[in-house]
Specification:
single chain; six-stranded mixed β-sheet; 6 helices; 6 strands
Length: about 180
């Protein structure tokens, strides 16, 4: 799949990240560290002289991150519901240690087994439909699972390789011509 140059960012650290909770469709606010991570992402984008539209998941943690970046870059934020995080249904808000398999076959894909949650194929289709509509370079502020599914699809990875993609908060992943680099 061809796509414009993309900069994919995960939201900054949240209260629930620190507590080890699955946020999924729910939300918790950024911590001081999370706000600093968002500022660092803005600085990385500025240092790379990125001039692009900023799209964000409408979920609070991503939107808060995107607004910090947009304020620093003098841009607006465009909310894109397709960039929201995977819903883990009955597991949303639960501690990871209470629901995660003790020895998962894959560190990511088990999250699509949640009762009442999103299923992988539908989730991926939603994200890729959004990317097909993006015609110019863009900054996408999203979530951990969403970022890996998106980047994996654009890099042509198999599902079993997605959990091995690097993640992290405060990081900027640059995708161009089926190659991923990390700014910083």
């Amino acid at each position: 799949m061809t796509h414009p140059e993309l900069f994919v960012l995960r939201h900054g650290e949240t209260v629930w990240n620190v507590e080890g909770r699955l946020q999924g469709a729910l939300d918790s606010p950024l911590t001081d560290t999370g706000r600093a991570q968002a500022m660092r992402q803005a600085e990385l984008l500025q240092a790379a002289q990125v001039s692009a539209a900023i799209y964000s998941s409408p979920q609070g943690r991503a939107l808060q991150t995107a607004r910090i970046i947009a304020d620093k870059m003098g841009r607006d934020v465009i909310e894109a519901s397709a960039l929201r995080e995977v819903s883990m249904g009955a597991w949303d808000g639960r501690l990871v240690v209470d629901v995660a398999p003790t020895d998962p076959v894959d560190p990511l894909l088990w999250k699509f087994d949640a009762p009442g949650g999103d299923r992988l194929e539908d989730f991926r289709a939603r994200i890729l439909a959004f990317v097909r509509g993006v015609t110019d370079p863009a900054i996408l502020v999203t979530h951990g699972v969403t970022s890996r599914i998106l980047r994996g699809a654009l890099l042509g990875l198999q599902d079993t390789q997605l959990g091995n993609l690097p993640g992290g908060q405060g990081v900027v992943f640059h995708l161009r011509d089926r190659v991923q680099t990390v700014l910083g």
